[in-house]
Design goal:
The protein is an alpha+beta fold. The protein is built from 16 helices and nine strands. The longest helix is centred in the middle third of the chain and has 19 residues.
Length: 332
């Protein structure tokens, strides 16, 4: 049975060394892994983007299908709608993958959507797109990637609500997150070179990296931190904040690619610019962990939702792996 036809699968080996896991990822990134479209790259990217959001279970780290595949329309939107990059080899039946068709159909029904980033599309339309994409990806991607990893990456059951990542693979993905992202981007770009013309491929790596745009509207986080906790001072220098205060990703967005209030601090523009794409020193990390222990006590719906899967050592591990990935330290 072809991998994409699988309905469920158990983890075949729980203890695999790093060389063995690298071999599996390199196989998936290579041309030896059969691909009609870019779905496998998309799922690897979703796993990497969500890696810190999983739920710890007895058998591994759980991610829901909705968590994973809600990233697909977000990641594919600019590539398909803005840049017009094809995602599937011609098979004599269609030149477009089902995900492309779902996105293009949404734009055909409402042309105004083509002018918007996926993040700011109205919730009803966005929810409808995510639901259709999730149904497609569950059917054709989960089993295919499971099979390519010889059943070592994760277990799954399509009747369940998600996959469970092998714990040793989870640790590997944390340790080598930046390297895996680069390899996945490169392999994704190479695949698209084979199915797109030269004009569409200009700066394709940049287009892939920009396919997940940073969330621009962070006002809800700013107001919660300002009014309920931060007392209008810069997290780094302690000076009183003005109206042009910044919401800063403590662990840089380039590494996390996610927006969570427990990773946000308020900063003056000067400190935010100086910090740039670096991780603050251990002292700041300790301060943020202390703040997060206190902020969880606030009776605020946004905070309770954001902290749903936060654990006491999560920031420390993110800080450690960000530094391993080559992100330098910021010392005030």
């Amino acid at each position: 049975m072809a991998g994409w036809e699988l309905k469920n699968g158990s983890i075949t080996e729980y203890s695999v060394n790093e060389d063995g896991i690298w071999s599996l990822f390199n196989y998936v990134f290579s041309d030896s892994s059969r691909k009609r479209n870019t779905y496998k790259f998309g799922l690897v990217k979703s796993l990497l983007d969500n890696v810190f959001n999983g739920q710890n279970t007895e058998t591994g780290i759980k991610y829901t299908y909705e968590e994973l595949f809600s990233r697909f329309p977000e990641n594919y939107w600019n590539l398909v709608i803005k840049y017009g990059l094809k995602k599937m080899r011609k098979d004599g039946k269609s030149i477009y993958s089902k995900v492309e068709t779902i996105l293009m159909t949404a734009v055909a029904e409402n042309p105004t959507l083509a002018l918007l980033e996926f993040e700011i599309i109205d919730e009803s339309t966005k929810s409808s797109i995510i639901k259709k994409v999730t149904a497609e990806c569950k059917k054709f991607v989960v089993g295919a990637l499971y099979d390519d990893f010889d059943g070592i990456l994760y277990s799954f059951d399509l009747k369940d609500d998600g996959i469970t990542l092998n714990y040793c693979v989870y640790e590997f993905m944390l340790k080598y997150k930046a390297e895996l992202e680069r390899l996945n981007y490169y392999s994704w770009a190479r695949f698209m070179e084979q199915i797109n013309d030269d004009n569409a491929l200009i700066r394709v790596i940049d287009k892939l990296e920009l396919s997940t745009p940073r969330r621009e509207n962070l006002s809800v986080y700013r107001e919660i931190l300002r009014r309920e906790f931060e007392e209008d001072i810069c997290f780094y220098c302690g000076k009183k904040l003005q109206k042009n205060m910044h919401v800063d990703h403590f662990i840089p967005w380039s590494f996390v690619k996610d927006d969570k209030i427990w990773n946000f601090v308020l900063s003056c523009p000067t400190c935010n610019v100086k910090k740039n794409n670096r991780v603050p020193s251990q002292d700041y990390l300790n301060r943020l962990e202390d703040r997060n222990r206190k902020i969880q006590l606030l009776q605020n719906t946004v905070i309770q939702t954001e902290f749903n899967r936060y654990t006491d050592n999560l920031l420390k591990r993110m800080w450690h792996y960000a530094k391993l990935s080559g992100i330098k330290e910021y010392v005030k």
